[in-house]
Amino acid sequence: MEILYNEIPAGVGSKGKIRLTGEDERKLLLNGARWAVERGYGAVSDLERIESGGCIEGANPDVISQKAYERGRAQQGTLGSGNHFLEIQHVDEIYDKNAADEMGLFHGQITIMIHTGSRGFGHQVCTDFLEVMEKAAVKYRIDLPDKELACAPFNSPEAQDYLAAMRAAANYAWANRQCITHWIRETFQRVFMASPRDLGISLIYDVAHNIAKIEEHTVRGKKMKLIVHRKGATRAFPPGHPELPDIYKRIGQPVLIPGDMGRASFVLLGTEKAMAETFGSTCHGAGRVMSRHQAIRQAKGRSIWREMEDMGIIVRSAGRGTLAEEMPEAYKDISNVVDVTHNAGISKKVARLRPLGVVKG
To answer: Which of 124, 168, 176, 293 is placed for a possible disulfide with 59 were both Cys, Cβ 3.0 to 4.6 Å?
Structure first.
């Protein structure tokens, strides 16, 4: 955990080991995880195990602000802060052996889960376009019921520019996770003095959340193209779906639902029922029961890292504040949340993963 913490930059404003030129960054925004693989960060075989092959078409680097470029240049290959994490886990329960076998999961196996996104780059894209959308709503005379809302008509220049910028941010995120995956492999190789093949470190799946995608769904018996915005949600496509790679066509799309750092995370599969009822979506995580400020107040006088160690979980963090914000009690029990999605049929359980070590920003 110590070496992983030193190898994967984490925390607010953390800077990575990759130094991007302006031209590099433009290529990254267009090509996503493909950009990373072309530069030696991982293998070509990883790409078929990433949503959209690690690159969503239609990104446009020309609509990105200079400030977003500046924020993104130093943060590629970093974990960030808040609820982002890198976790070493072990498989302690298998619910669907056939599906687990197809994914290469087995009882007692060590797994690694990464949760991070487009970092300050994506945050700046959002900030820039909120201002654009607020003006657009006035321009197109859209009456919004809440001051927290902002929008523009889909075919307007403002909306099209935003979609192109959001796709660039998604590509940045896929590249970011790919680089981190590569450094995790290198760390394991160094510590255990073995090759990735001998260690058996292969990617199961990389799936986005907080993304808007144009997809085809059946609405009232009619096939329609829709913009599906998954915020706090993740994709859950069923067996045979045309967007799935051949390796998962038979069983459906792997779904990753992380919990808090003290309890568990789950691997599930997408279902036909999700396509019928939730536009091929399921939940993304446990969800908070305490605000960050509440959690910090609750943790006052406590040593969260020591409590975690007493549970057999080694934690490394950029600061005490993050551990307080992210303590297990701040979140719903993931097992209850996952049982709801499983019993509702919108994703079905395959395996439960218990944490052994956690890196938090």
So the answer is: 168
214: closest CA among 57, 64, 63, 346?
57
**Type of residue numbered 159:** A
Which pLDDT value is given to residue 196? 76
Geometric angle at alpha carbon 293, from 331 and 180, rounded to 5°: 60
For residue 13, give both structure tokens.
């404003």
Q: Quick one: angle between helices 157-192 and 22-31, nearest 10?
A: 100
Residues 166 and 138 in one domain: yes
Residue type at 15?
Answer: K
> How far separated are the first and last CA of the chain, in Å rounded?
13
H runs (alpha helix) in the chain:
2-7, 22-31, 33-38, 66-73, 97-103, 119-139, 157-192, 196-199, 246-249, 272-277, 292-298, 304-310, 320-325, 334-344
Q: What is the spatial distance between Cα 194 and Cα 197, in angstroms, rounded to a whole number?
A: 8
Per-residue pLDDT at 12: 77
* Residues 226 and 288 placed together within one structural domain of the fold: yes
Q: Which regions in the chain score pLDDT beneath 70? A: none
Find, among 29, 318, 277, the residue nearest to 166 by Cα. 29
Active site residues: 284
Q: Are residues 304 and 186 in the same domain?
A: no
pLDDT of residue 324: 93
Task: Report helix, strand or coil for 18.
Answer: coil
Counting beta carbons within 10 angstroms of the beta carbon of residue 33, is it exposed (0 to 12), middle (13 to 18) or buried (19 or more)? buried
Q: What is the pLDDT of residue 318?
A: 80
Render pLDDT for 241-283 as a digit per residue (tens, 0 to 9).
999 999 999 999 999 999 999 999 999 999 999 999 999 999 9
Distance CA(265)–CA(243), nearest Å, equals: 25
Longest Cα–Cα distance of the chain, Å, equals 63
pTM of the full structure: 0.95
Asked if 351 and 304 sit in the same domain, the reply is yes
According to the model, what pLDDT value does residue 11 have?
Answer: 76
